[in-house]
Write a structure and sequence with these properties.
Length: 757
């Protein structure tokens, strides 16, 4: 749950997680009737081939929002990450999008969410086999078989296997992502419904941010250059391997480990589904799931500042007697270990009464978490497969790893429970006017262990430490967890009106608000104090016009969205050094935007989805008291939110040549984005591009070819390590400066085969 990784994930690889001011057309289409929206290239992700893409919306993502059979695929991805337990594979009968108004009422999160449903089986035997590979040696296959066992009994079974070596050779393991997922289920058909029981097992080892950072030269004008001998995207900035040393935050014992040993994940879940249509036109849906992940581990890498070493730094490559002179970077590592279980139940009763379509729903969601992380630091060469340098100390000893648990080690154990009741009504007031509204009331109970003390080198549970107060007095404490118990009420409400003047023109407006209190994972760090424990409120207001004729469907909307009391744990670095501190931040964000979305089909076979968004996401009440001498405090009020562009464009043309052959392209432009909190550094706009051919050879065979990043852009993205507090006045010093950060997937060609019978 390290902050830098959460922000990186939120910006370039996370799941669709907040209401989009990008897809107004899709949202207006789906909100009015409460149905799921269409899937629009949701699995085209320019940063990760295994996850749905995030739609940029002007606010940082909070968490994963992917639902499977009406329930969260994982309750929270802060520890048990979504891609370790869910993939868009042959086990799914349908994958769509849930709009933010529906999500706010049904789940409590204002979110543009992936909504997936399992293939429960059918009476006729069916099988589907998918195989994918790419030019870097990726091997991926999944298959599903389903049919009937006997009269009124159905079955389904699936296997998913992913062997991804990544885009460069990883010396300490064979794969950047090795994931296995197995499904099996039975269904009993009823006269007016069905009862289904599904079992799912997942096992995943993925390296994530261990291999996703790279060094580059920041030119100073928003562009970057590759370091000679280091190709962005296809060169490893992770060590070759070897053993490292760390301090266990639970007991303070020094332990040894190896890179790649802290990425194990496995989980079991059992899902029950029941749906039934009664004689009086009532329909009841019940979904329940119990999931346990006894091991939910992952490893994070981070960086600080790149600098030129000299002989006086006394840094040596291991086994060498001559001091290392050259570029080096202070590197950070976090070892996360979690155990997760949850029991989830959602039931929904629906019925139409004349012009009204009513739904009454109930959520009972329980989540238990046992989590800790340990951190350490090291200094590495700025090179492919960097060496971990050894520091020779004045007393004659040596040090290769240091700063144990100084930077945001975390711990929490406890549970949270959500009991909620919701109601919606879709009212066709007149043939021209539709009114949709709903409300949700949620009782929220959280009980968590929190360690509310500042971190320092050597921090661990059971240690005794003396802190200096602001008035100069000292306070000696034993580092131990403190129990936090909260009982609160959260709520959500939404209303939308759509009025069509005629068959061409219409207007639409909606307003949604959702609230929540800090979640259990936000107590893993120092957590909010009693004075800082405040309600998080997210309002969304939109309004615009629609136009439709026989060749175009257009929506243009203005959107306002905000979030108050956002909690963030930020690691900040003293500019130009490797000195870092962890600070807890609570601030607000607001975004005003305008978007126009159109579906255009001027002639048979051709379709174009086009979208333009202009937005201004800004910080409010964002203040960091500098922990470093000589570095001024940071007041980021009014600054543009880092990593979020102000201009976005999507162009998705496709052409159906005949019933068998389809050509398609996808262009996404992300405008200038700021790479640090002060808006001193930025990245120029970039294009993310995809293209492909789909050929339905016959009813049993489909072939496909997809090209990722066909413009071969080799740009950096996200934030720049070590630049959090860099002022605009100092930005001139960072021209042609060596830095590190994240990057786009390289040019890749992927091939797919689907066999159905």
């Amino acid at each position: 749950m390290k902050c830098n990784q959460k922000i990186l994930t939120a910006t370039i690889v996370a799941i669709v997680a907040f209401p989009s001011i990008l897809s107004a057309k899709e949202l207006s289409d789906t909100v009015s009737n409460g149905d799921q929206g269409e899937e629009r290239n949701v699995m085209l992700n320019a940063s990760d081939a295994t996850k749905p893409r995030e739609i940029q919306i002007g606010l940082p993502s909070e968490d994963v929002n992917v639902y499977e059979n009406g329930l969260p695929a994982v309750y929270s991805s802060a520890i048990h990450q979504l891609a370790r337990h869910w993939r868009s594979d042959a086990s799914l009968g349908n994958v769509g999008l849930m709009n933010p108004m529906e999500s706010a009422i049904k789940t409590g999160n204002i979110a543009y969410s992936v909504d997936s449903y399992s293939n429960f089986g059918q009476k006729d035997f069916k099988a589907i086999i998918n195989y994918r590979t790419n030019t870097f040696g990726w091997q991926n296959f999944d298959f599903n078989v389903s049919g009937s066992i006997a009269d009124k009994w159905l079955y389904t079974a699936s296997i998913y296997q992913n062997f991804d070596p990544g885009y460069f050779k990883i010396r300490f393991t064979d794969f950047s992502d090795r994931t296995q997922i197995y499904h099996a289920g039975v269904t009993r058909l009823l006269n007016r419904g069905r009862i289904c029981l599904l079992y799912k097992f997942s096992k995943s080892n993925a390296l994530g941010s261990m291999i996703n950072n790279a060094p580059f030269i920041y030119v100073g004008d928003g562009s970057v250059l590759e370091i000679p001998g280091f190709a962005l995207g296809t060169t490893s900035y992770a060590p070759i391997g070897g053993e490292f040393e760390y301090m266990d935050v639970l007991d303070g014992k020094m332990k040894k480990g190896r890179w790649g040993d802290f990425t194990d994940n496995y989980a079991h879940d059992i899902t029950a589904h029941f749906d039934y249509a009664f004689d009086n036109d009532y329909k009841l849906d019940i979904n329940a799931k119990y999931m346990i992940a006894p091991k939910a581990d992952y490893c994070d890498f981070g960086g600080s500042s790149i600098y030129e070493t000299s002989a006086s730094d006394n840094l040596y490559k291991e086994g060498e007697s001559t001091p290392y002179v050259g570029l080096a970077e202070g590197r950070r590592t976090w070892l996360h270990s979690g155990k997760v279980c949850n029991a989830l139940l959602t039931s929904e009763l629906s019925k139409s009464f004349g012009l009204h379509k009513l739904r009454l729903g109930l959520n009972e969601w329980y989540y238990h978490l046992d989590y800790n992380s340990s951190s350490f630091q090291w200094t590495g060469t700025v090179s492919a497969y960097p060496d971990i340098l050894v520091k020779h100390l004045p007393d004659g000893s040596t040090q290769q790893f240091y700063g144990f648990n100084e930077l945001s080690p975390e711990y929490t154990k406890g549970y949270e429970n959500k009991l909620a009741l919701y109601l919606t009504d879709n009212w066709q007031v007149t043939p021209k006017f539709n009114l949709y509204f709903g409300g949700r009331l949620e009782y929220y109970r959280m009980c968590a262990d929190q360690i509310p003390y500042g971190r320092y080198s050597g921090f661990h549970i059971g240690d005794t430490h003396t802190y200096t107060n602001a008035d100069g007095t000292e306070n000696t404490v034993v580092i131990a967890p403190h129990k936090v118990l909260k009982n609160k009420l959260n709520y959500a409400a939404t209303v939308q009106g759509i009025y069509n003047f005629n068959r061409h023109f219409g207007v639409t407006a909606d307003a949604t608000v959702a609230t929540r209190y800090p979640r259990i994972n936000e107590y893993a760090g120092t957590g909010p104090t009693e004075e800082q424990y405040k309600r998080v409120t997210i309002p969304l207001i939109r309004g615009g016009i629609t136009y439709k004729n026989n060749w175009m469907d257009l929506t243009s909307m203005v959107t306002y969205i905000a979030k108050s009391n956002n909690i963030d744990q930020q690691n900040v670095t003293k500019p130009g050094t490797t000195q870092s501190k962890t600070t807890l931040l609570i601030y607000s964000i607001k975004t005003l935007g305008w978007t126009t979305s159109a579906e255009i089909h001027p002639f048979k076979g051709f379709n174009l989805h086009a979208l333009l968004t202009l937005q201004k996401p800004t910080y409010n009440n964002y203040y960091i008291k500098s922990p470093f001498e000589g570095v001024p405090d940071l007041n980021a009020n009014g600054n543009i939110v880092k990593e979020i562009p102000q201009v976005l464009v999507e162009l998705d043309p496709s052409y159906q040549l005949n019933e068998k052959l389809r050509f398609w392209l996808s262009f996404r432009y992300f405008g200038k984005t700021y790479a640090n909190l002060t808006n001193a550094l930025f990245f120029n706009g970039r294009w993310e591009t995809f293209g492909g051919i789909n050929w339905n050879v016959n009813r049993n065979l489909e072939l496909g070819c997809t090209v990722v990043n066909f413009l071969n852009q080799k740009g950096a993205s996200g934030t720049i390590n070590g630049a959090e507090l860099l002022s605009k006045e100092e930005s001139g010093k960072y021209k042609n400066y060596y830095m590190s950060g994240s990057y786009l997937r390289p040019f890749t060609v992927e091939f797919s085969v689907t066999i159905k019978f």
